[in-house]
Every structure is written in structure tokens, then in C-alpha cells.
Design goal:
This protein is of the alpha/beta class and 291 residues long. The protein contains nine helices and eight strands. An eight-stranded mixed sheet has the order 1-2-4-3-5-6-7-8, sandwiched between helices. Strand 7 (231-236), helix 8 (244-254) and strand 8 (258-264) form a beta-alpha-beta unit. The chain is globular, with a radius of gyration of 18 Å.
Amino acid sequence: MTTIYKSPEGEAKVLSLYDKALAKLGLEFEETTVNTRFGDTHIIITGPKEAPPLIILQGGNTVSPVTLSWFLPLTKEYRVYAPDTIGHPGKSIQNRVSPADDSFGKWVVDILDGLRIERAAFIGPSYGAGIILRTAAFAPERISKAVLFVPSGIATGSISRMVFKIIIPMFMYQLFPTDKRLHKAVSPMFSGDVDEITVEVTGAVYLHVKLETKMPRLATKEELMGFKAPILVLAGEKDIFFPADKILPRAKEIIPNLIAAESLQESGHFPSMKTLYYINDRIRKFLKENR
């Protein structure tokens, strides 16, 4: 059986932290499994049952409760569905699919069909934004509107900076794991306050998971020509992976119905509490104004 984990003990550790992070949210939720052409996908469901559907796709190499924690205010107004991305840490099948072709678009379509949702709004941070863009290229009619937050799939930052600031410290932590080395490895991703459960999950993933190193393919203007849904892009000024000065100009070039593209000042890849307060308010306004 395909596995992304280095050992059964490592898998148990990551899934234990998944449950810990989910419990910390303090939400009433349901769980379901949808069968897709790539295998079973586990989904967390929360929010009012009669509210409009909102799909929140997790970031890469993390667990969906961490991503969901960033958008908790929206669970009061929307029926939120948070799938565990296949091939990433979580409770879905561990098969990896190519982020360079239509596979993730097909996966999202299968999820929507399984949930009996014709069209939905989407939020995708980081890797999740790249999945939204793959879906926009494959089945644009299934997306009613979308928020791309610190998004992959548009442009990337300096590779050499990532190597020295993230990858080398991560390798040092993997070889000689200590709290000090973990914080050194993750601190370039944060701006301001550091969420300890996010750090704990990241540390466990670094130690116990065969990391996904391939990001979703950069979208092109040509493949998004048929994508007419309103889009909001929120990029971090100090995001080491997808900095705003790279993301915003290209987003304006390739996304047809870009309502707004904003730089989050002083913000890194993982949002601070101050940034979270702003982005949830901004997203709420965007979703309501673009019905």
C-alpha cells in the first residue's frame, strides 16, 4: 500500500496531532468520506446546514484542521467543507497525484459530485490555491467565486532564499531534532505571533512524512480564459514562498475576473492573529458582494 509516512509510528503521531488540532477548534462538526477516481477523501464538515457551501482546501504538507483554524469566523455563515488533500498528511488516501496536469481538478470535481454540490465558493491557502487554479483550468463552471491566499500556482519567490532560510534548517532539525532547531526552521514562515499547534504539526510532518516537494503548476492566461468566477488574491508581503511583489503583478496578467489583488503588509506565509482578523473580514465582504 502506498504511504507518505516514514513509519507506522510516525503516521500515528501525525494523526494524533490532527485530532488535537481539530479538537482545539471547538467546532461542532461532522466527518464524511467521498470516493473519488483517485481514492477515498476524508472531509470535515461544519457550519449551518442550510448555509451556502464553502470549500476550504488545506495547505501543503500540513493537516486541514490547521488551515481551517485560519477561517473560523466563516464557519458561522457558511456550510464549510474541508477535504484532506490526497497524498498529504491527513485521513484521505495517501496516493499522490500529479500537480502538473488535470488530476487535482478531477479530484475536486469528484468531491463536489460526491457531496451533491453543483457549484461552490472556494478558499485555498498556499498549495490549496494551486489546486483551485488547476480546477479553474479543468472545470471552471464548478467554482462560483474563489479566494487565493498566499497562493501557489501563480509565481514563486527566491529559491536560494528558501534553501538557506527553510530547507537547510529543516534538514538540520530532521537530523538533530530539538525545539530550538524546529523554531529556527519554521520562524521564517511566520510574522509576529507563532501558533504552537502549527509548529508542533509542522515538526511532526518534517520528521515523519515524505514531503511533497512539487507545487501545482503555474497557471497560464490561456488556460484560465474560460474562468469567469470572481477572484480575490491575498498575498503576504514577506511570504518567503510566494511574496506579494511576485504574485500580484502576475495575478493581474493571468486571472480574467480578478476583483482585487492585495498585499498583506508585514505578513509572512503563516498569518498572524492581526492578519487573520483582517483577512476574514475581507473575505466575508468579498463573498457577500460577489453573489
